[in-house]
Amino acid sequence: GTFVVRVSVGSGMLKIDEVLEFELIPGDAFVSEDRFCFVSHEEEQYDIAVDAECIQLHAQGEDASVYLQFQKMDDEQVMELTLELKSSADCQNLFEGLSRLISMHPVYDDDDDENDENGEYFGQGELIMGAMQQQQQQEEDGERLREQKGSEPTEDERQAMLDRLDSVLVVPPHLEIDDRNSVAGQFDDADEDLL
User: Fold this and answer.
1) Which end of the chain, N or C, is less surrounded by CB atoms within 10 Å?
2) Domains of the chain
């Protein structure tokens, strides 16, 4: 699709399942109508293309950085990418581009009646990464990466995830809610089902 955003990235840190990690990779980030791409200035193996449906979370950091959490639709392995941009303006442009990308590709709940029989209204999201080739090579060489089991996270793990998100999520000043104008109890009669 048509490019929405292109920014130059000072460095990127890619973390795959807390095992495979690349740090300080300079490159360019692109957001098109269909996907997010990171193209390394160094080697192809660091290039990443992520379809919109695979992006689970994106957040803007205080220090001109953007955080992405994504995973392939049929895989439990969660990957994280933190991009350190050269300016606050580039950071804002990338964040807005990602927000637009996500809004153009809503993900519907599996319980939604409008879903197809497999519960996948939007199809199979694709994730293409040069780094994944290296992971496959490591597995072929007998270096097994830790496999995540399908078990639910513990309360401590959930709290650690929430703490991590709180540390990277930033509400821009123009979107902050001013508590001074709120009235105590103004939402007491709200329908609980909508909350």
Assistant:
1) C
2) 3-174 (2.30.29.30)
